[in-house]
Amino acid sequence: MAFIDCHFFSETLGLSTAMYVILPQKTTGQIGMKGHVTGDKHPVLFLLHGMSDDHTIWLRRTSIERYVANLGIAVVMPSVHRSFYADMAHGPKYWTFVSEELPRIARSFFPLAEERERTFVAGLSMGGYGALKLGLTHPERYAAAASLSGATDVFEFATKRASSTEAVNIFGSTGLIPGSGNDLFHLADQLAASDQPRPKLYQCCGTEDYLHGANARFRDHCRSAGLELTYEEEPGTHEWGYWDKKIQRVLEWLPLNEAKG
């Protein structure tokens, strides 16, 4: 595998930012790990961080590079700070950045596939919310979206868990969230009522996690709307031991056989 610490300028954010990128490399002499490549351009997983972390965290807290080495998949890990993957009411437009500019820039720098069936997104906590938001908003771009302990009820987060200042900075009035593009429940309903292709959806959460109730509500909402969703829960809290295990499960779940090109 190749690892790139990539720093670049974002026109959307108006500042320099960074992403970690893992690229497949076919190897035979690397001790303890054999690489795999599936084609000239690599299937890509956009892997999103949580609220207290940054683009470095997946590589620091898990063995994601080792987990993907034999899969022939690239991993792009951007930095979005505490934006909740939103075009902030009082701050930068991180949703536009991660949904539009980031994929375009990453593909201009690296040999990443552009086809929907070879493009995936996953994340944890705030990043789990971001992954589902991307998959539900742009089902024509993502074949699969996976949430690990995701903050699926952003209205609950904004009204009960965030400070009033932070919630206003991100969303403006919290009353604007329900029924908006920041509301996963609304986005699920929109997708269910459309003729858009439906990405595979995966959701997991530990039963002792403080976000378990919100995850169960979103699971039930998706199923009542008729969306296909793989849901898994088991004992666990909001911590990296759980996410290190479940990201391996996500990689097993991804439709990579359909992504070969």
From TrEMBL:
User: What EC number(s) does the entry state?
Assistant: 2.3.1.122
- Transcription as a keyword? no
What keywords does the record list, in alphabetical order?
Acyltransferase, Transferase
Q: State one Pfam family annotation.
A: Esterase
Please give the InterPro entries that the UniProt record associates with this protein: Esterase-like (IPR000801), Mycobacterial_A85_antigen (IPR050583)
Please list the GO terms describing molecular function: trehalose O-mycolyltransferase activity
Write the protein's name.
Diacylglycerol acyltransferase/mycolyltransferase Ag85B
